[in-house]
Write a structure and sequence with these properties.
CATH topology of chain D: Rossmann fold
Number of strands of chain B: 1
Oligomer: heterotetramer
Shape of chain D: globular
Largest interface: A-D, 50 and 45 residues
CATH class of chain D: Alpha Beta
Radius of gyration of chain D: 15 Å
Helix content of chain D: 40-55%
Strand content of chain D: 15-25%
Radius of gyration of chain B: 23 Å
Order of helices and strands of chain B: EHHHHHHHHHHHHHHHHHHHHH
Largest sheet of chain D: 4 strands, parallel
CATH architecture of chain D: 3-Layer(aba) Sandwich
Number of helices of chain D: 5
Distance between the termini of chain D: 32 Å
Number of domains of chain B: 2
Structural class of chain D: alpha/beta
Amino acid sequence: MDELKIGVYVCNCGTNIAHIVNAEGVKEAAAALPDVVIARSYRYMCSNPGQEMIVKDIQELGLNRVVVAACSPRMHERTFRNACKTGGLNPYLFEMANIREQCSWVHADKLAATEKAKALTHGAVNRVRHHEPLDSLTAEMCPSTLVLGGGIAGMTAALELAMAGHPVYLVEKADHLGGNLARVDSTAPYLDSARDLLTERITHLRENPDISIMLNSQLKSLSGFIGNFSATIETNGGPNPPERKVIPVGNVVVATGYKEFDASRITHYGYGKLPDVITSFEFEQMMRAGRIQTKSGKPPQYVAIIHCVGSRNQEFHGYCSRVCCMTALKYANEIKSALPDSYVSDVYIDMHAFGKGCEDFYKKSSEIKTLFLMYGKNESPVIRKAGPNDDCGMLIEVDEKLSGERIEIPADLVILMVGMEARPDAGEVARLVNISADKDGWFIESHPKLDPVATTTDGIYIAGTCAAPKDIPDSVAQARAAAGRILAKIAKGKIEIDGVFAEINEDRCSGCRMCNELCPYSAIEFYADKKRSHVIPAACKACGACVAACPSGAIKGRHFTDQQIYAQIEGVLA
Amino acid sequence: MAIRINPKLVTAIAKYGAEDVQKCYHCGNCSAVCLHADETFNFPRKPMRLLQMGLEKRIEASLDPWLCYYCGQCSTQCPRGAEPGETMMSLRRWLTARYDFTGISRLFYQSWKAELAAILIMAVLTAAGFLLYGFSYGDLRVYDGPGAFLPSSAVHIFDWAMAIVLVLLLGSNAARMWWLTTGSNKKIKFDFWLYVKKLYTLPLHFFTQKRYADCESRQPWKLHLWLMLSYVTMLVLIMFFLEPMQAGPDIRWSVHALGYAAALGLLVTVVYAIHGRVKKSEVHMKHSHESDWIFLFMLVLVTVSGVLQHVLHRAGTDMAANIAYVVHLALVVPMLTLEVPFSKWSHLAYRPLAMYLAEIHRVALPQPKALTEPAELMKMAS
Amino acid sequence: MTEKKKLQIALYWGAACGGCDVAVLDTNEFILDIAAAADIRLWPIAVDGKYKDVEALEDGELDLTLFDGAVRNSENEHIAKLLRRKSKVMVAFGSCAHMGGIPGLANLTTREEILTTAYLTNASIEPGNRTVPCTETQVDGLKLTIPSFYKRAYRLSDIVDVDYFVPGCPPAPDQVKNVVLAVVKGALPPRKSVIGASERAVCDDCKRTKQEKKTKHFLRPYEIIQDPERCLMEQGILCLGSATRSGCGVRCPDSNQGCRGCYGPAPGVADQGAKFLSALASIIDSKDPAEIEGILSRLPDFVGYAYRFGLPASKLQRSHRS
Amino acid sequence: MSYEPKIVGFLCNWCSYTGADLAGTSRIQYPANVRIIRVMCSARIDPTFVMDALAQGADGVLICGCHPGDCHYSEGNYKAMRRFPLLKNLLKSYGIEDDRVRQAWVSASEGQRFADIVGDMTERVRALGPSRVHSTLLADQRER
């Protein structure tokens, strides 16, 4: 290839860099490096004049490599790549040295910081020599979408997509739609009927011709990549043997929901032993049946509601399940209106009343004389049978935080607000669709703040409580957001694939298949006939696991090649 | 050892006035704004909590409600409208009922009809008694001197008899108060000299109510003080100078001047109070329990009838004066016998006593340390 | 027929076992063709020739030198440089010359340790004999010198400019033919290239079927009855084949032994052992550090295994103990 | 002038490199001895890189990735985790001191942790003195 012409630009970032790092010194050191034809330092490289400087040099000095020593590439790599593009240079012929976040901002010793900045810049210059122009690829986008889970989130996402006229496959494990919402009587804080919400959704679903609802069905395998997945669905329709169906889909919405915490795991609540200790879902059943009563059929005089069962407790789940507080208040209200002479004790850790109308709901609940009792994290109450002389069935012993007293709460009926936990099959689902789950089993979003519905696998989106505990409005919002993201992609028609991915040199690959199992995105396929492995660019996320592992050096990690990294090592140590 | 809570108490206390207790979510603003609350006597928040949880024994043992003069700051500041001030008031009523071993007090607070009935009966009995006495020993047309219908000497003896009964009743209740709050408290060992040393606080708070003066607005304190002093003045005149008071018809300024001042004080302050409660013009007047109304109206009637019999006597219309006098006695006797030991008026004894005992608690009880340093708070939290 | 000048060749062994020379003989009848077609000017193991004869040659007079063995002492170096000067084509012949070979493993110890073991502590030393060779000695007033023993072993290419590499321990006989014929025909590949080996790893020529790989345990060959059809790695038997240049004819795996890596790294691989490590560890089927440690503990002397033939060619080349 | 160790740090883009950036944005100070090289995932870190860095004169090498279970590529860091003990075993045979090469998990939110790790490692490597690898290899060239 023609001779290298490298331009190096050292940013002062106002004084952010220059007050510690001697930018001029770094510039001069860089200028002295081989192949560097121009080195400049400037106040703000990311500013328009700064970028224009690069564009101008590319065009006038014919630079074919550009290095900017400035902030973190996570901050401005894209900015400068675009500048290169504008200058007519392939954006991948650019490299950044991070002399702000990892230099001027973390070191006080000016000399040492400057030396380090020089080294990092040297590394970048060395590296950029080996950069190659890369082009992004494009692939077709299949307009149909697979939605996993027929709960409120799944149904909403499916409707949103279908209403835009795109085919949707709604896969539900159970024999009916509705998920956990179908087990609920009414919703907090406005006490609307959950049934109404569901019937509205379900009727629309059934009416819509673009939606094929697959009940008693599960995803068995998912291959391919964004825009070009092929999903195998197994339907287990009662007597007749399970049938498998392979459907082509462009995107997948995972809305598999949650499972409630198993209250019997907390032995001192006596759930399963004391007949009148029930879970929130069992109470919902009572409400749906329309009668609040103890096992002996009597209406309870004292009702106690215990919050955070399995949540916010190091022994079980550290996180907050987010919906229990308002649900508990809902119960307090329902009980008071059904049994005005009853006494409701609400035993909580903290009252989480965020969200519309919830603080008011909390106030309202105290106005109806609900007795709020606070217990401490990790010292949860103990429930025992009451004595013959007590006017109640059970006694709950607990350290009450607001009074500092150790108290006994009378109760005839105890409702345990069981928290949410990841479904036992969450790990399996994550494996099937190639997304990751955190330590609690919740699926991980691509960015917790900026990209809460996408995952690190293109074309796979998450919605509802499979990502984290959520209330209905949030689940619905996330479902619609996921649908929106997919619609945008479908509208675009084609998908663009970043030029950075791994590629296998077939002349070097010996078909040892060491790499096949390593890819988290099953992007490596094996051609049995040729005895060669091959990377599907669109499916590859460029992590480089296979590149490092290929024993015969046949896999090349584009933009992170061995040569580039060796050169950088040499540079930073020079 | 865990103590059993009683969710029912909150409902029960409503009869004593507090209806919003359960709205409190313990932000602590009330205790923060209260100038009298401190680490030892942390009210209104703490008593409110005890009340919410129905820990009656704890409340019985607490002096907190009596240390509050109900300036109403807490209620104004409360973000939840839980009316801490009124709750303190209600707790005072509840405690009064608790201290009273006869149970009459509980009856009165829970049913104003009962209270009213008791007053009527008492009035009738008194009237009957004095009329019988008058007609058998004197002449309705004579007000004072020989043959007087109700000779002051006789009334004087009656007054003293009644006073002794009242003091005994109130005294025994006060004693119960001491026992519940202090005597029975294992942590406070009896220290005679301490009681002697702190004794001065009793009259101090009784006559000055200086703590009331510390409250945010001083106006209520002035009125309350005026009312109280007028009342006491009148009491002293009646108990010690009844003869000179009744002698006439010419006015003896040496005693009457004071009498008029006291009567005026009583009238003005009570009328002001009634007006305030009707208009709900101030925080501490927003909520009025039936017992408050009965108390005020009795006081008004007593004062007016008293003034009336005096004026009629000076005017020389002795017969009218005598009738007015009987009416006056028929009002004042039930008021004193029922209100002082069993109702609102008892606080004239309980409050100063509470202040006195509080002083003893401060010395005798281990003082909780004030948590002001954030660092310490953090330590507590972790 | 006109007198065509015969091919001038030399063979030399540095720090070597002689196996490479035997490999030359293993070309059977072809050796006769060589003898007929070429003057063997130096071949210490087989032909009588003196260094001074070589020194007497013109520079570049030799057409081909096959140098086997690592460079371990001053004599090796001297002759290497001499032959380099005298020959047109210098070939690093066999694993030792190519990568340091078995003698290269000595780089994990020090010169002192080696001499102590060989001349003092070795069981076969006759009692009381404390003779240790040293570069210079006085005997009856005469100064005797022997070549000096270096701190470590070197590849031939560390010492002189090498034209071609013929890997293998030893190189397969037909590779010898290929080289000689190539020189005769003048049909040589670009300089510095590896002759007689494939661009791919051994697996490419290995007959065994290969699946996706995940392993929970490593076995020594005697620990299982192995399936001759299936990839050895999948059976838990270490095999360097995937990290080794092919060309040997899959001799070891075909005889149910894991490949030992004598042909060196595949092209484009900087460090054979490290690369194999990377691959091997990646396919371990565990996420538990303790379990991983356990699985790896079944690999005694990993360095000796991964760098059996290439320690001096590795990134770190030798022990760096103080 | 006292000896200043040179440490090469290989950081995964998503957790550790971001964590190091966070240390920057939060102005958490740490020694200037570490030279950071960004890779997309700790699984990309070829053991050869570590050996190369040592051969090129690094006194220490630091490998950082996401905490186990939190990998952006779901399981990349486990691959790094599996390679590391074997790499250490190899380096031991090469006579490289234990403290010179270290693997640590640093999440995107652990700027302070990253700073602490660098601080601690710098001290350990300083205590070991300069690495002999580079100098020995140069000396070997002189021997010939």
